[in-house]
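Recall from the previous chapter that SMILES is a line notation for molecules. Here it describes 2-acetamido-2-deoxy-beta-D-glucopyranose.
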Amino acid sequence: MSQEMRVQDNAEVAGTSFTMRVALLALRLMCLAWLWPVTQLNSSSFPNKRRHKELYLGENTKQKHAGRVEIKKMDSTKSLLIKSEQLLRIEDHDFAMRPGFGGAALPVGIDVQVESIDSISEVNMDFTMTLYLRHYWQDDRLAFPSSNNKSRTFDARLVKKIWVPDVFFVHSKRSFIHDTTMENIMLRVYPDGNILYSVRITVTALCSMDFSSFPLDTQNCSLELESCWYNRLYINFILRRHIFFFMLQTYFPTMLMVMLSWVSFWIDRRAVPARVSLGITTVLTMSTIITGVSASMPQVSYVKAVDIYLWASFLFVFLSVIEYAAVNYFTTVEEMKRLKNAKIPTFNATQAMAFDGCFHDNDIDLTSFPEAASTPNTERNTQSRNSTNSAPTEGTRLRRKNPLKENLSFIMSNSYMIDSYSRVIFPLAYLLFNIIYWSMYA
Ligand SMILES: *[C@@H]1O[C@H](CO)[C@@H](O)[C@H](O)[C@H]1NC(C)=O
Ligand SMILES: *[C@@H]1O[C@H](CO)[C@@H](O)[C@H](O)[C@H]1NC(C)=O
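With both inputs in hand, we obtain:
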């Protein structure tokens, strides 16, 4: 095209003067330089012209001009929406009715994919989970002709125009369909009218929990789906608690507090402030632990496993305080007795000092206690030999009457022995309690 023009130009300018010819040539050249890209574009675009194929159904809307592709695309999307509704014949049917209304029940398949269990609340007795709820059913009204048997996928806008199953969660406190960035709804329609309807939901549902073996419990929570056909679908979730957190948070400190209360038995019985403050501190700490645990639990009318442990431990701590009260009382009684019988001449010096309280319990252990602990009767005799003459007859009389009573009265009259026995009895009893407790619940 440009070469033709140049030939014509040369023929025209043959008869004109040289200067004119030069000026015109320059002008023509400028014109040519400007024209060149334009002609290039035109000549190149024609052979490469694309046949823009309509995406949908391939009917009668072939694109003629490449320059208008963008605009045409927008148009075609718009026409698709109209076509989808026309294709599915949305306007032709009353979608307020279920498919096959008046006839047999419509089978609706449901499946649930749990995305996450977000929280489980003991206090509110509920659990929250996010799940995909999918429904499958067939609606012949939405069947459409198709050459390749491929499904169509739509979003929430079409869902509002057609019939969908009225499934709801029984015992749900709150539930919502996620709507960021769009409503998390998907509708897939197959050419034969089969439909998949998928929704992403977060639901908080009630779960009546049984805490009788808390925190060593297993909860059976069920998510229930129902529709106005009155069929109910149960999905049972078996939730087993990890005990480690409660071991660390509750059981371990409780054990330490009980053990701390035993320290009192090893402190001199005359150290009243030390033993009383230790006892009170452990009792207060125990009550703090109990309060903390019950605050995070629902107020149920039955006893929980953790309550049994806490209250039994509390009892141990409490008894250790009472033990000291007993030790202190009997020590005072002994001293009163000793003051009364102060005139007795043949009193052993060591024992007198022990009753007086100048010796520590350990010193007494060295002299008289081991014998007393093993065979109280012989000790009694030994002691009686050292004391007055009337004592042996009394001792034998007591032994004949009731050995237990005799032992008890002996312990009472030697209050340091209460501590000595407690050092063994308390840990053993607590150990026994732990063995029974953990074999019962674990
Ligand atoms: C179309 O596809 C569906 C599922 O994808 C299948 O069940 C059905 O048989 C197919 N129909 C034909 C005619 O191929
Ligand atoms: C959980 O509870 C349901 C009824 O609510 C019951 O059918 C199911 O057997 C229970 N599962 C277990 C493991 O106890």
